[in-house]
Design a protein that fits this description.
Elements lengths: L1 H11 L19 H12 L7 H8 L1 H10 L7 H5 L12 H4 L3 H10 L10 H18 L4 H18 L3 H13 L7 H18 L4 H9 L2 H6 L14 H8 L24 H10 L9 H10 L3 E3 L7 H7 L7 E3 L2 E3 L9 E3 L2 E3 L5 H12 L2 H15 L6 H13 L4 H9 L2 H5 L10 H12 L2 E2 L3 H10 L22 H15 L6 E2 L12 H9 L12 H5 L20 H19 L7
Antiparallel strand pairs: 1-3, 2-3, 4-5, 6-7
C-alpha cells in the first residue's frame, strides 16, 4: 500500500517538500503587511502583538511553509502542557489513572459513606461535599478531571502553539470526524483520539485519517459500531474459518456461536455517517443499500482494552486460525463479522474477506470523486467563505485526486488562489465562539491559567468544547454563529476581559501604551498594526466619546498623585479602547 502511494505521488509530480509558490496577494491590491495580517486571521487563531510585522519580514511563503511542516519549536506551549498529568501518561493509561464517578461512589460506599439516592437538596449538597473530601483524601482523579484537562489543553494549544495551522486543522478535523464526550465510554478516549490521531494527521493523508478514526474507541463507541454484528443466522468469518479447515483440525476450532452479548445485530449508524459526513457527502450518489452493505463490511469492528478482563474472548483471539485480530484497543471479532458477499458502490467484495474487507471499503470511499469535492468544499468553506466559488472547489478536488488524498497540497492550492485573497478586501467569515475567544486572548497577549469559567464562556457563546452531540460537528458555515444571545455574550466577554475581571485571564495593558504616546497612536498599534496611518475619522475620542481620549479622573487615585499617574491613566484608557475593539463588529470577522 505504501509503495503504491509513493509511486502515485511520484507520477503526479507532487512532493511533501514542494515549496509554496509565490502568493498572489499583490494582484488583490495588498501590501506585505496587509497580506500577512490576512494570512494570520485565516490560518491561525488570530495574530499576537508584533506577529504581523514578524511574518511580513520573514516572508509570507517561508512562514507558510513552516506552518505546513508543523514543526516549529513550542517554547511557550511545552512547559504549560507539562503541568497536565494526563498528557504525560502512555496512550490508554488514562483509563486506569482516572475513575468514573460511579466507581468513585462505589469506593466511597465501601469506606462507609452511604450513597445518596433521594432527599432534600441540602442533604445532596452534604453528600457531594463528603464525596469530594473522600476523593481528595484517597488521591483519586475522575473522568471529570480528565475532561477538564482535555478542554484546558485545547485552549493552551490554540492560544500558545507556534504551529497554529496544525491546531486550526486539528479543530477542523475534529468537527469533521466529530465525537461528543457526553458519556464515559467516549469521554475517556477523546484525549487519545485528538492527540494520537487527529493532530498528527491534520496535515497528512485523508485516507489514513479515515482509517485511523474508524478504528479508534472514541468513534466506535460514539457511533455504536462497537456493538455492530452480523444479523442472526448469517454466516460469520469464524464459521468460514471452521468450514475451510481440514477435518482433523476442526476439533481444535470453535465453530462459532457468538459469545453472549447485550446488543446484537447490525448497526448502521457509523456506516451512514462515514458516507454522509466523512467522505461522499449527503449528495454523494449512494443509496440506503450502500449504507447497509458498508455496515456489513464493518461488522465486528469493536473495542477490547488491553487491561480488560475477558478470558473467554481472549482464548478466541490467541489462535490465528480463528480470524480474530487485535491492534491496541481495536478488535476485529470474527464471530461478529458478516462473511457473505457484499456489493458497495458497484464493487463486489467476495465472501470471507474478514477485517481487510472493511479497510478496502473505506479506501474505496476515500478515492471517490464525490469525496474529493466534498472535502474541497468544506476546506474552502472554513478558510475562504461560506459559499466558496465552484472553480476553486474543483481545483482543490483535482489536487486531492492527483495527490491521492494528501491534505497539504489542497491547502497550497487554496492559499495560492485569487479567490482566497479576494476575501481580504471583503471579509465575510464570522468567527466561531472558540475562534473569537482565542483571537481576543492572542490579540491582547493575555496570560491563560486554568479556570472552569473559560469553558462556561464558550458554552454561553454557543460552542461548548467536545460537546457537539450531533455527528455533524460544529458548522463551518459562519452564519450559524450569528445570533443575539451569542453576540451579547461576546460583548460581555470583551468587556470583562479588557478590565481584567475574568479569573484565569490577565492582560498587562502597560505594554500597549508607551510613555508619551498619544491615544491615536496606541489605538493604531492595537487595531491596525499593518497600516501606515489611521483611516480618516477613526480616533480614540470618537470611539470612547472621551474628549481627548482619556477616561475622566477617578477618585481611586488618592492625593498626592503617584509618580506614574499619567501612565496608569493611559493603561486604563488602553483597556477601554481594547474593550471597544474586541466587541466591535469588525473584530467578529476573521
Amino acid at each position: 500500500m505504501l509503495r503504491r502511494l509513493l509511486l502515485g505521488l511520484a507520477l503526479t509530480g507532487w512532493s511533501a517538500a514542494q515549496p509554496v509558490p509565490p502568493l498572489p496577494y499583490r494582484a488583490a491590491g495588498l501590501n506585505e503587511r496587509q497580506a500577512a495580517r490576512f494570512l494570520l486571521q485565516r490560518l491561525t487563531f488570530g495574530p499576537t502583538p508584533g506577529q504581523v510585522e514578524a511574518v511580513a519580514n520573514q516572508g509570507l511563503e517561508r512562514w507558510l511553509e513552516g506552518q505546513l511542516d508543523g514543526r516549529e519549536a513550542e517554547e511557550q506551549l511545552a512547559p504549560r502542557l507539562a503541568e497536565l498529568p494526563s498528557l504525560g501518561l502512555p496512550p490508554g493509561e488514562e483509563r486506569t489513572a482516572y475513575v468514573s464517578r460511579n466507581r468513585m461512589m462505589e469506593l466511597a460506599e465501601q469506606d462507609t459513606l452511604k450513597k445518596w439516592t433521594e432527599g432534600s437538596e441540602r442533604s445532596r449538597q452534604i453528600y457531594e461535599a463528603r464525596l469530594r473530601e473522600f476523593k481528595e483524601a484517597q488521591g483519586l482523579f475522575t473522568y471529570d478531571d480528565l475532561f477538564d484537562e482535555l478542554r484546558y489543553q485545547k485552549l493552551l494549544r490554540c492560544r500558545y502553539s507556534s504551529n497554529q495551522l496544525r491546531e486550526v486543522l486539528t479543530d477542523f478535523w475534529f468537527n469533521h470526524f466529530n465525537v461528543a464526550a457526553l458519556n464515559d465510554n467516549v469521554r475517556v478516549n477523546v484525549l487519545s483520539y485528538e492527540r494520537d490521531v487527529l493532530r498528527p494527521g491534520a496535515l497528512g493523508s485523508f485516507p489514513r485519517l479515515l482509517h485511523q478514526t474508524s478504528q479508534h474507541p472514541a468513534m466506535l463507541y460514539y457511533l455504536d459500531n462497537a456493538q455492530s454484528s452480523a444479523a442472526a443466522g448469517v454466516r460469520t468469518t469464524l464459521n468460514a474459518r471452521y468450514d475451510a479447515a481440514a477435518q482433523e483440525d476442526q476439533e481444535d476450532l470453535r465453530q462459532g456461536q457468538p459469545l453472549k452479548r447485550k446488543n446484537g445485530g447490525l448497526n448502521e449508524n457509523y456506516a451512514r455517517e462515514v458516507m454522509e459526513l466523512h467522505t461522499l457527502g449527503v449528495d454523494g450518489g449512494y443509496s440506503q443499500k450502500d449504507v447497509s452493505e458498508l455496515a456489513r463490511c464493518l461488522s465486528g469492528w469493536t473495542v477490547l482494552y488491553p487491561e480488560a478482563k475477558n478470558d473467554n474472548l481472549r482464548t478466541l483471539i490467541e489462535p490465528d486460525e480463528l480470524g480474530y485480530e487485535q491492534r491496541g484497543d481495536f478488535l476485529f471479532r470474527a464471530d461478529w463479522h458478516d462473511a457473505e458477499t457484499k456489493t458497495l458502490l458497484g464493487q463486489t467484495f467476495a465472501a470471507g474477506g474478514g477485517r481487510a474487507e472493511g479497510e478496502q471499503a473505506l479506501e474505496l470511499l476515500a478515492r471517490q470523486p464525490a469525496t474529493s469535492r466534498f472535502l474541497a468544499r468544506k476546506l474552502a468553506q472554513r478558510f475562504v467563505c461560506d459559499e466558496p466559488p465552484t472553480a476553486l472547489v474543483e481545483r482543490m478536488a483535482q489536487t486531492y485526486r492527483e495527490s491521492r488524498g494528501e491534505i497539504r497540497p489542497m491547502l497550497v492550492a487554496l492559499v495560492e488562489s485569487p479567490e482566497f485573497w479576494a476575501e481580504a478586501r471583503r471579509p465575510s467569515k464570522v468567527k466561531s465562539p472558540l475562534e473569537y475567544l482565542l483571537s481576543c486572548l492572542r490579540f491582547c497577549d493575555a496570560d491563560l491559567q486554568f479556570e472552569r469559567g473559560h469553558f462556561y464562556w464558550l458554552q454561553r457563546m454557543g460552542e461548548p468544547l467536545y460537546a457537539c452531540a450531533p455527528p455533524t460537528g460544529y458548522s463551518e458555515d459562519s452564519r450559524s454563529w450569528v445570533s443575539t444571545s451569542s453576540l451579547v455574550n461576546r460583548l460581555n466577554f470583551a468587556t470583562q476581559l479588557s478590565q481584567n475581571r475574568i479569573k484565569g485571564l490577565t492582560v498587562d495593558w502597560s505594554r500597549f501604551v508607551k510613555p508619551g504616546e498619544n491615544p491615536d497612536q496606541a489605538l493604531q498599534s492595537l487595531l491596525l498594526p499593518e497600516q501606515a496611518a489611521l483611516p480618516a475619522g477613526l480616533s480614540a475620542p470618537k470611539l470612547l466619546n472621551g474628549g481627548d481620549g482619556y477616561p475622566p479622573q477617578r477618585k481611586w487615585f488618592r492625593n498626592p498623585r503617584p509618580a506614574d499617574y499619567d501612565q496608569r491613566r493611559r493603561q486604563v484608557w488602553a483597556s477601554k479602547v481594547a474593550g471597544v475593539l474586541l466587541a466591535s463588529p469588525e473584530f467578529q470577522y476573521r
